[in-house]
Amino acid sequence: MRHLLSTKGMSRDEAILLLDIAEDMADVADREVKKLPTLRGKTVVNLFFEDSTRTRISFEAAAKRLSADVINFSAKGSSVSKGESLKDTAQTLAAMGADGVVIRHPASGAPHVLAESGWIDAGIINAGDGTHEHPTQALLDAFTIRRRLHGGAARGKGLDGVTVTIVGDILHSRVARSNLWLLTTLGAHVSLVAPPTLLPMDMSGWPAESGFDLDAAIDAGPDVVMMLRIQQERMNAAFFPNSREYSRRWGLDDERFGRLARTTIVMHPGPMNRGLEISSAAADSAGSTVREQVANGVSVRMAALYLLLSGDREES
Amino acid sequence: MARTVLNQADIARALIRISHEILESNRGAENLVILGIPTRGVVLARRIAEAIARIEPTATDVRVGSLDVTMYRDDLGHTRTRTPSRTLVPGSIDGVTVVLVDDVLYSGRTIRAALDALGDHGRPKIVRLAVLVDRGHRELPIRADFVGKNLPSSTAERINLHLLEVDGDEFVSIDGGPVDGGPVDGGDTEGAS
Amino acid sequence: MSSDTAASTPYLIRGATLADGTRTDFVLADGRIAEIGSGLSRAGASIVDAAGLIILPGLVDLHTHLREPGFEQSETILTGSQAAAVGGFTSVFAMANTSPVQDTAGVVDQVLALGERAGYVTVQPIGAVTVGLAGERLAELGAMATSRARVRVFSDDGFCVSDPLLMRRALEYVKAFDGVVAQHSQEPRLTEKAQMNEGALSSELGMVGWPAVAEESIIARDVLLAEHVGSRLHVCHVSTAGSVDVIRWAKARGIQVTAEATPHHLLLTEDLVVGYDARFKVNPPLRRREDVEALRAGLADGTIDIVATDHAPHPVEAKECEWDAAANGMVGLETALSVVHSAVVDTGLLDWTDIARVLSSTPARIGRLSGQGQGLLVGAPAELTLYDPAASRVFGRGNLAGKSANSPYLAMTLPGRVVATFHRGYATVLDGALRPADEISALGGRTDG
């Protein structure tokens, strides 16, 4: 794998291979020595143009467990915020010998630009670009669902026939986009539930149903309910009136949670707004995978780093 | 032209002999863990464990597993990306005798990686190595304790090792190297195809 | 062919093909078309063999960004004039978003003078509608109209005159000197942080969408305002099918509205955004295939009056970056005729007579520019373009004559090629090559035209 920029266009075989390798990586966490020498001598740069401590430390842990050297480059307060271009930053990292760059950027497509630019030869992992994609989050979500459903026999399997309902700010969610492509590639059925203002204007090309009614979606009995974080700033832009109304119509509150089957998997990419999009009872329930998602994130990112940084660079 | 060196019966006899040798060297089946190196080493490890159980009916719990070495290789970035296999180490290996099992011993680099991997799982008292074929050309100071067949070969030659569970048939054969000195299988994964 | 350095040196153009397919000779002398007919001869004339070449009246671009004063790293009036000449243009209207803004008589006269000094084309300044393009107070429209530059087109292009009252007043006020307001139709609130056409693709790419209605609603408002106050309105760079419908309705109602489409909106679609190559970032954004088809149909049926380039040079660093950070705009003077050829001539929608109308006579008329767009008549100013329609080329950096390389057509195969351009009777381009600036400046400096 030359780069990991999106889940759109990722084949089923590629996705399953990555998830299977992540299973092997997860096994390492149970060992006495939780570290592999695989990427010894390789340098991974976490290039973050947006604050995201969770994602950064997940990638950092993944790279370190594979023995890579990790450099954290936060664009805030650096020369980047003083007007240095992405090009100059990339060339600086290239000069420092970065083998892999994990990039988080507020502009959709920035990782793609970095990968295609010729400014740097490193493998690029998209750690979230604008409102476009966040492929490793989707991979860890798929990994988490697959483990919940198949346990130790998960290797080699897809998510065929699994019904997943994603609820919340679909419009601005890179997590929703990456999950949409990945989960459907793995055979799942995805439906999206959101206020009309928070659904993209034209989803004709999306392999998903969409609707506005969370109660109907709950009563349809999905295998997985994925709640997205609602950003406070949306309230100021007339996407919905206020948090109380949002919570009442589109929040997974105790009553709605109680109507879900006990086997339903409840997911949230974090950080959660408890009491807004998800109630504490739902977030802390046995069906909740919130903490597993964090642990699995490291395994999936180890797998991604391995696939990116092993093999000849000529490989495409 | 492939020339068959071992047929299915030859392989079975070699594995039984190796099983005897392991028991002899370990003075029984106590504290014995047999770990195969994927893919074919795992099959061989399982057969050896079964043979040991037949030879020593009291040895009811010969532990057998797999040890993947992909993440410990030293040729990362020089070949295409390798797909790792599963590692299953049955219980603690501290203080036991581990017998590593591989199909073909060649440069020794796989075994070097296996020793590193093993160290991350615990601290065995003794580590031994069993291989079905030793074809020579070592690049590291490593030797096998139990060998099915020594098969001196030139680096231009290719060793084919097939096992029923993996390949649907079973034999060891040797191919003449390419006359034009073209690509030979490098590393030591080995000769088996 | 020799490069004569005296404006009075006549040219004999032999065997040029008129838009109707007939072949004829032209003699250019003293800055005018002296003779038209077959078998012409002229003592001392430079002879131009025009076999296989279409002769068109010199092209007029109602919408060009020359960037000077203020943004000379992108383009100067000289380099922009050169790009225009290479594209077959003999006149360009220079948009007002310079620095300082062309919102006073002093600045527009300076632009006029720099254009005259360059000498490749007539540079006709456009005046800003509001002071500093800020959309708050009217600029001194009358002073610009009566200055040496005789400004008739007023535009805040780059920004929309979104305040309806200010727009109404501007439309009314320019009637005093037969001016026209050229509106950049973009509702600002509906396009905050907008990055590309809003639709299925923006939804997938996670880009903030630029809805068609942001353009269409302003056009609808403006045509009704123009009707109400009885003024002329010109709509810049129409980009959506809905806009074409609104303008068609307004024209049917008798409203005095004219409209332009850019070559890129007639050829390219939003699908090019997929690779995040910022050369394809432009305002208004590239739209859907259906919009391109509607623009072509609108141009064919006269709803859209003209093609204007919106030539918008930007330095490398403004485009070699992530999409959100990149500047809007594409250069387009050098490629305009080839792109229009590909989009509407090769598709059978327009013939070469129509091209002369939409790229020469009508833009000159909308802009009230004398000395341009008068057609191929004896006695008309010698503003001519010779175009080889049979040529085909892979367009490259070397084909750009302006300062900036932000062309969306690099590495694309385009039909046709401008072989020669004549401005005020002298050649600015011959054999497809630009004549040197010092020669042209010496010729253009003459004021006898």
Task: Give a summary of the structure in a few sentences.
The complex is a heterotrimer of chains A (316), B (193) and C (449). With 193 residues, chain B is α/β, with parallel strands linked by helices.
Q: Can you give a write-up of this model?
A:
- With 316 residues, chain A is α/β, with parallel strands linked by helices.
- Chain A folds into two domains: 12-134 and 295-309, Rossmann fold; 135-290, Rossmann fold.
- Chain A has eleven helices and nine strands.
- In chain A, the strands form two sheets. A five-stranded parallel sheet of chain A has the order 7-6-5-8-9. Chain A has a four-stranded parallel sheet with strand order 2-1-3-4, sandwiched between helices.
- In chain A, helix 2 links the parallel strand 1 (43-48) and strand 2 (69-74).
- The longest helix of chain A is centred in the last third of the chain and has 20 residues, at 290-309.
- Chain B has 193 residues and is an alpha/beta fold.
- In chain B, 26% of the residues lie in helices and 24% in strands.
- Chain B has helices at 8-26, 40-55, 109-119, 164-167, and strands spanning 2-6, 32-36, 63-66, 97-105, 126-134, 146-150, 158-162, 171-175.
- In chain B, the strands form two sheets. In chain B, strands 3-2-4-5-6 form a five-stranded parallel sheet, with helices on both faces. Chain B has a three-stranded antiparallel sheet with strand order 1-8-7.
- Mean pLDDT of chain B is 89; it is low at 179-193.
- Chain C has 449 residues and is α/β, with parallel strands linked by helices.
- Chain C has helices at 77-86, 105-118, 141-146, 164-173, 200-205, 212-229, 241-252, 263-267, 289-301, 336-345, 352-366, 437-444, and strands at residues 11-17, 23-29, 32-37, 46-49, 54-57, 59-64, 89-94, 122-125, 153-154, 180-183, 196-197, 209-210, 233-235, 257-261, 306-307, 384-394, 413-423, 426-430, 433-434.
- In chain C, helix 7 packs parallel to helix 9 (289-301).
- The longest helix of chain C has 18 residues, at 212-229.
- Chain C starts with 10 loop residues before the first strand and ends in a 5-residue tail after the last helix.
- The chains are: A alpha/beta (316), B alpha/beta (193), C alpha/beta (449).
- At the A-C interface, helix 4 of A face helix 5 of C.
- Chain A: Residues 2-146 form the Aspartate/ornithine carbamoyltransferase carbamoyl-P binding domain.
- Chain A: Keywords: Pyrimidine biosynthesis, Transferase.
- Chain A: Residues 160-308 form the Aspartate/ornithine carbamoyltransferase Asp/Orn-binding domain.
- Chain A: This is Aspartate carbamoyltransferase.
- Chain A: Heterododecamer (2C3:3R2) of six catalytic PyrB chains organized as two trimers (C3), and six regulatory PyrI chains organized as three dimers (R2).
- Chain C: Belongs to the metallo-dependent hydrolases superfamily. DHOase family. Class I DHOase subfamily.
